[in-house]
Design brief:
The complex is a heterodimer.
Chain A lengths: L15 H16 L2 H8 L13 E4 L2 H11 L11
Chain B lengths: L6 H13 L4 E4 H8 L8 E5 L3 H14 L5 H9 L3 E4 L6 E4 L8 H6 L2 E3 L2 E3 L2 H11 L2 H20 L1
Parallel strand pairs in B: 2-4
Antiparallel strand pairs in B: 1-2, 3-4, 5-6
Helix pairs in contact in B: 1-3, 2-6, 3-4, 6-7
Classes of the chains: A mainly alpha, B alpha+beta.
Chain lengths: 82, 156
């Protein structure tokens, strides 16, 4: 494990109304059969740079994270900061 | 660019990997979705056991699934490089041999969950790996994912 693991202070607080909304979404999801859940959940949009090669490999996860930080547009969210 | 990942493709992974006795677990948001987490993602993430025997089996399964692998790529997968990103097949697939935040494949396998025959990392491991990765997109999704984890434990 790396030494920059997220701690609870970094995770935003959630209010009660938001929680109730999420629970309703979880309940609705669990009522759906798995094929339908997957149909709703897997999407495909072009991701610049990331989708421009057919194969990539990294010796370590740290190498992969570093490559993401250096090469991907920050708005894709693969880095540790925007 | 491959089409979006769907249920029949997930079944193909399950059945083809089983035929070759390849050991893996669905991880990340794709794993959470199999468990019931309502969210969106683009790729399937597989946590693959790192061993020579399993690397061999995984390569055979990938070729059967239609991935066009070069000799060099086959050797890297057999060797178990920590992270391999495949976009040269019928769908996009990430192979993760050493995910952040998870001690070992054996530990993850010991308490994994089966959903319709799909082997999935326990949600505790899915959350742990996202916490350890600590990317912007993980930080955005974690509060809802953790709430789902609580919900799933109460209702399983």
């Amino acid at each position: 494990m790396n030494n920059e693991t997220m701690n609870n202070e970094q995770i935003p607080e959630v209010d009660e109304a938001q929680e109730k909304e999420w629970i309703a979404e979880f309940e609705a999801s669990m009522r759906r059969p798995l094929p339908l859940r997957m149909k709703y959940s897997f999407i495909k949009t072009y991701k610049p740079v990331l989708d421009d090669a057919t194969y990539r490999s990294f010796e370590t996860m740290a190498d992969y994270r570093e490559w993401c930080e250096k090469n991907l547009p920050s708005w894709l969210g693969y880095g540790r900061s925007l | 660019m491959a089409d979006r990942f769907d249920y029949p493709q997930a079944q193909e992974i399950r059945d083809t990997f089983a035929r070759h006795h390849a050991r893996y677990l669905f991880l990340g948001k794709s794993g959470a979705i199999l468990l019931g987490f309502p969210d969106t993602t683009q790729d399937a993430d597989l946590f693959v056991e790192k061993s020579a025997e399993n690397g061999e089996a995984v390569v055979k399964a990938l070729i059967d699934l239609g991935f066009a692998l070069t000799v060099a790529e086959i050797n890297e997968i057999k060797r178990g490089k920590d992270f391999v990103q495949l976009k040269n097949g019928p769908f996009d697939l990430d192979l993760i041999f050493a995910p952040d935040g998870i001690e070992s494949f054996a530990q993850a396998w010991a308490h994994h969950v089966e959903v319709d025959g799909f082997p999935v990392c326990h949600p505790d491991d899915i959350v742990a790996s996202k916490e350890a990765a600590n990317r912007v997109k993980d930080r955005e999704s974690l509060p809802r994912l953790k709430k789902f984890l609580d919900y799933w434990k109460q209702h399983r």
